[in-house]
Amino acid sequence: MSNTIPNRQVICETLMELAKDDRDIMVLASDSRGSAAMGPFAKAFPDQFVEVGIAEQNIVGIAAGLAHSGKKPFVTSPACFLSMRSIEQIKVDAAYSNTNVKLVGISGGISYGALGMSHHSLQDIAVTRAIPGLAVILPADRHETKRMTQALVRHEGPVYVRIGRNPVEDVYESADGEFVIGKAVTMRDGTDLTIIAAGETVRVALDAEALLRDMGVSCRVLNMHTIKPLDEEAVLRAARETGHIITVEEHSIHGGLGAAVAETVIQHHPVPMRIFGIPDEPAIAGKTAEVFRHYGISAENLADAALRLISRKRQERER
Amino acid sequence: MDMTDLKIKATRIRMDVLRMIHRAKAGHTGGSLSNTDILTALYYRVMRINPADPKWPDRDRFIASKGHAVESLWCILADLGFFPKEELDTFCQFGTRLIGHPNNKVPGIEMNTGALGHGLSIAVGMALAAKRDGKGYRVFCLMGDGEQAEGSVWEAAMAGAHYGLDNLVGIIDRNGLQISGSTEDVMAIEPLDTKWKAFGWHVVAVDGHDMDALVKVLESAPEVPGKPTLVLARTVKARGVSFAENIPGWHHRVPNDEELQRALAELAAYEAQLKREGGRAEA
């Protein structure tokens, strides 16, 4: 792996750049400034940093109060606690009151590897995307994280962002270009099927596409960084133009990216789909790559599933 | 507004509340009547607000953490001209913005509340923003006593003291009752004064229906630099309606036609008495 910079560090550095000229940018932490990599921000901008202690309900309420007063608060707290312990504050104080609160769930998904289900956040997308008015975003790599952070500072309104703990391999060459909330990125174009991924699984999807390409299969890869509002147009274009969809996510197979895509596909243009994610069980212990492999979230497995999906369709056509 | 006028105003607000709840056949009668004097003191005397400019940046902020007792707040905001008084007829009706909890689509409402234990955290955020920006506004947060069982109240209490928010005033409407009965039977919360003191707050106890005392306490807060103030306001649930006072069932009971007339007659008689006394004071 070439990249050694975790996304959390990128968020900190980007916010530090912008906070110099924008004194309303604030960062809040719940005894999490270390794991959020926000130590440098706290040091450089003490007046724009708020430590709340281990109190995830309070951190969201305080952020809502700050936002109501014109601040641009970024709450940085482990995704597992932020998305569960404070879900009512997220629903009422952030989303329902429509405050400009950015919720950054750090160490998301299975980042905490061997720490168990208490520390995994594999239901956060399901709960946050069911809340009206709340955007839900998973950036794919450090470059997209930078673009996203810049866009979040400009964007007015509540957003839940989930990032992982460890550095992820790049999927973009640079941080150039604009991040548009709610607009999927076509990473590879193709005609035989589409793999839709978000966050750290975009890399897996791209690797699967490379394998398929070698086998003569034309695979489209969509980076669905915004799970809500979902880019339904891109999903339906994929359904119409490629006829098969595979989704892959670091989340429970229930209620996440796969569910969001399926809800759209099944109602408007049904095509065969496969949903890859973590099954409905406490996830097995291990490093991200090990756990991914255990549950079939690998380039090889995705490519294999793609071939089976396509050949089934071809057989049907031939009959 | 002077004391007699404030008391008369509170009495009229109570009448508006009862009429509105009766018309809508819905509402939290008990809690709205127990907090009426507190809200009247705040909105007609203590807080710096401008109904013509609800978002005036230097206004004092009010957060109704006990959001279910919104009826008195709706009646006060309408009376002050934040929205047309006729709109009170839509309370809890289909499609209304005057729902059974504070709704920030209505001018004068800062934040949507209703889920208990949220308001004080929000108020801490607002007070902290004022401190960081060197602004002089104060933040008032009204909580219920049953609400004190919510753990998040104490997270916010800790933070308010930690950041020395002497521009923050928490008020507890201590009417002693919650939906299932006495607070002490449901989940004992006493001793509230020593609990809040232990959390680093300056605590002031006051009779929550004594307008003179309420105004004095709320106007002088904060009394201690570097500390948030907690006003422990002893109140009577359904205050002002003799047959409903202190009865848990009136938490969200709706008066029938006969009860409404009795209640309005009692309040009208009290208003007449206030006017006579006020007249004597002036003479």
Tell me what you see in this structure:
The complex is a heterodimer of chains A (319) and B (283). In chain A, strands 2-1-3-4-6-5-10 form a seven-stranded mixed beta sheet, sandwiched between helices. Chain A has a five-stranded mixed beta sheet with strand order 7-9-8-11-12, with helices on both faces. Chain A has helices spanning 7-19, 39-44, 56-68, 79-82, 87-96, 124-128, 142-154, 201-214, 232-242, 257-268, 288-294, 299-318; strands at residues 25-29, 49-51, 72-78, 102-106, 135-137, 159-162, 185-188, 193-197, 219-223, 226-228, 245-252, 273-278. Chain A contains twelve helices and twelve strands. Chain A has 319 residues and is an alpha/beta fold. Helices cover 40% and strands 18% of the residues of chain A. In chain A, helix 1 (7-19) packs parallel to helix 7 (142-154). Chain B has one domain (3-282): Thiamin diphosphate (ThDP)-binding fold, Pyr/PP domains (Rossmann fold, 3-Layer(aba) Sandwich). Chain B is built from ten helices and seven strands. Chain B has helices spanning 3-24, 29-34, 36-46, 71-80, 119-133, 151-162, 183-186, 192-198, 211-220, 257-282, and strands at residues 61-64, 139-144, 168-174, 177-178, 181-182, 202-207, 229-234. In chain B, strands 1-2-3-7-6 form a five-stranded parallel beta sheet, sandwiched between helices. In chain B, strands 4-5 form a two-stranded antiparallel ribbon. In chain B, helix 1 (3-24) crosses helix 3, helix 1 (3-24) crosses helix 4 (71-80) and helix 5 (119-133) runs parallel beside helix 6 (151-162). Chain B is globular, with a radius of gyration of 18 Å. The relative contact order of chain B is 0.17. The chains are: A alpha/beta (319), B alpha/beta (283). The A-B interface holds A 47-48, 50, 52-53, 55, 57-58, 60-71, 73, 88-89, 92-93, 96-99 and B 57, 104, 110-115, 117-118, 120-130, 132-133, 151-152, 155-156, 158-159, 162. Chain B: Residues 10-252 form the Transketolase N-terminal domain. Chain B: This is Transketolase, beta subunit. Chain B: Pfam families: Transketolase_N. Chain B: Its cofactor is thiamine diphosphate. Chain B: It comes from Thermobacillus composti (strain DSM 18247 / JCM 13945 / KWC4).
